Amino acid sequence: MKILRIPALATVVALLALALGLAACGEKSEDESGASQSFSLALDFYPNPDHAGIYIAQSLGYFEEAGLDVGIEAPSDPSLPIKQVAAGRTDLAISYEPEVVLAREQGLDVVAIGALVNRPLTSMIWLQKSGIKSVAGLKGRTVAYAGIPYQEAFLETILGRAGLTLADVKAVNVGFGLLPALVGGSADAMLGGYQNVEGVDLRERGKAPVVTPVDQLGVPTYDELVLVANRETLETDPEKFRLFIAALERGTDAAVADPAAATKAVLGANDGLDPKLTAAEVEATLPLLGARTQGQPYGYMDPAAWNSFAGWMRDNDLIASLPTAAELLTNAYLPGTIPE
Predict the structure, then answer these.
(1) 337 CB-near residues (< 8 Å, 6+ apart)
(2) Res 36: pLDDT
């Protein structure tokens, strides 16, 4: 009997070692009772095509498979999520690279841990019928913008590259009324709309928009949408953040592979969206969500580009001190990276 029991014991030990090894590799996160770990995510805005990877990951059970019970909340104000993270009221938030830099200036101990969209979406938009051929053609024209301070600096930089100043245009703060201002004719151009949202909306209306992302007009490139965490929370419980991003990568890849399912997931999260327009916006958005920096993991943020953009913000008096990329971001929680 002892001869039979020795291999059985060895098998148990081997299985136990395998289970421990999988846990150490971060394959799943559970509390001591075996239940999924609660994880909260604050969106940057109402559910829209930018969040397709998130909602597909949720609908296909990828977060659950990772041992995470993910709760998703939409903010009443896009400036709130990063503050909620800083205060420890949510685990993770979607925000914008400029907001991360501003938060650092304000003494908020937050850090970007992954890029959802690794290039600018914010664009200068006018309609072909306006007769505007270039930024220089904005002289004497009305430009609507959303009232965000760094976007006013975007405008100043864009105009400066074309030999103009803010005094050469009529810049009007219209808040969230960018599209009505442009379509209604009270503005000749708008700055602040996204190429994959407002740009697509105008195209679907048959308005023939001319859409140019700001990094093609003189503003340094930056990561439009980033995942932001509280540094202390991140260091206290790092594994759940790695698991979240790994599951999000799976969701993003699944969305890219099945745009119809991605559209359905977004519409399921926000029944106020127009199905036809949403499908068109999802089609334009998925290549942006699925983009990878060559040779780098999903969600990678380029420290050199962040340094450059932070320098631009300081040069434009948006911040007083110049933070380093290491103070603003970490790529250590991305899939395939070695934990710090």
Answers:
(1) 297, 331
(2) 84
**Confidence band (pLDDT; 50, 70, 90) for 26?**
very low
At 125, the amino acid letter reads I
Model pLDDT, residue 338: 65
- 99 inside domain: yes
Query: Pairing between strand 92-95 and 225-230?
Result: antiparallel
In which domain, by residue range, is 11 found? Answer: 1-29
Residue 278 CB partners (closer than 8 Å, separation 6+): 48, 49, 263, 266, 267
Question: Does some domain include residue 157?
Answer: yes
- Could you read off the pLDDT of 238-276 as tens digits, one per residue? 999 999 999 999 999 999 999 999 999 999 999 999 999
Looking at the predicted structure, is the pLDDT value of residue 66 above 50? yes
Determine, yes or no, domain membership for 337: no
